[in-house]
Design goal:
- The chain is α+β, with helices and mostly antiparallel strands.
- It has five helices and ten strands; from the N terminus they run αββββββββββαααα.
- α2 runs antiparallel to α5.
- The protein is globular and about 60 Å long.
Length: 237
Amino acid sequence: MSEMGPLPGSGHGFIAWVRNNFGTEMVTVIHQSEQGTEERTELEAQVQSKAAFFDVDAPVYEGDRLEIPDPRGGVQRVYITDVEVNRAGGRIRADMSHIKATFSTSAPQSNPPGGHSGTVIYGDHAIVASGSRVAIATHGGRVVQHEEVPAAYTELVAAVQGALDLLESSDYFGPDDQEIGRDAGSVILQEVIKEEPDQKSLKGALATLRGVLTAGMTSASGAAASEIIKQLFVPGS
């Protein structure tokens, strides 16, 4: 019997390790957009009887539909009823972080469709946003949180994602700036999903995020940063 391969290292994710040791298959995730159109994404997953496992940055959300190849022929169509973002911590490599999507053959109660979708995975933070929904896992532990984003804050959520993307992709921002930005972004996203956001905390975190972007602005990143900075304010302020 062959030995199990080593845990993934740099450049290798959870699904790559599962593929090499247990096998995976391609599935189709179907997400309903805010405009009512279907967004179909083909993803590699490890499928079990009642759940499918994906890399931690896979665009998979509660309420999505899932098409799984049926070994008997055809396609099995199921509904994703719960999504857990599992962050590896302690002695377990960060590359073992993953998403567990529990599914059912029964259709769930309808949820308001989401618009903008995307995932921010930085250090100890996993922030998954999809228009009217946000899921957050933080600080190396398993924290599952699925909340609705009020319509007034959906554009702000997209702006925060844009800011964090810029911080991570640009060479002009150092590790300290990136960490401060991650913390501020996490505070913002966790506040906007509250029934009554703490305006002081929200404004403070937005000011911090604007400050980080402003401090690191250069001729190369200035245009993108300036446009994002204009959107990093509490709606209506």
